[in-house]
Amino acid sequence: MPDYPPIRLYYWSKKYWHIGITEVTIGETRLKIYEKKKAVWYAIRFRNKIGRDVEKEVLKNYLKEKGRDIERLLHFARLLRVEGQLGLYLRILL
Q1: Span 3-17, pLDDT tens digits
Q2: Are 34 and 21 contacting, i.e. CB atoms less than 8 angstroms apart?
Q3: Quick check: 1 pLDDT over 80?
Q4: What does the alpha-carbon distance between residue 93 and residue 2 come to, in Å, rounded to a whole number?
Q5: Helix ranges, 1-94 (H)
Q6: In the predicted model, is pLDDT for residue 46 greater than 90?
Q7: Cβ(26)–Cβ(11) under 8 Å?
Q8: What single-letter DSSP state applies at residue 4?
């Protein structure tokens, strides 16, 4: 590992890692990327590590989007065990 920048490695079970991955095609290249909903889940799940201000900003930005999908977001939250916390935030912000 390099000395700079500081890097932390996290490992996920396949059960959680595969949730929210979608494929996109750019030119002739196919890429697997996370859906934005999974970024919201990460922000909620790791709010104590990244800070509540970052968590709040991520959720607010997602809720401002025209293509937001609250039902799918709640589905992710249920699968990834943060449904209670997300539900509380949604009741406050919506």
Answers
A1: 899 888 877 788 778
A2: yes
A3: no
A4: 41
A5: 14-17, 36-45, 47-50, 52-64, 70-79, 83-93
A6: no
A7: no
A8: S
Opening angle at CA 76, ends 82 and 42, nearest 5: 60
Helices 52-64 and 36-45 meet at what angle, rounded to 10? 150
**pLDDT for 58:** 92
Query: d(Cα 74, Cα 81) in Å, to the nearest integer?
Result: 10
Query: Identity (one letter) of the amino acid at 89?
Result: Y
User: Which residues face 33 on adjacent strands?
Assistant: 22
- Condensed to tens digits (0 to 9), the pLDDT of residues 24-43 reads 999 999 999 988 888 888 88
Whole-angstrom Cα distance, residue 56 to residue 36? 15
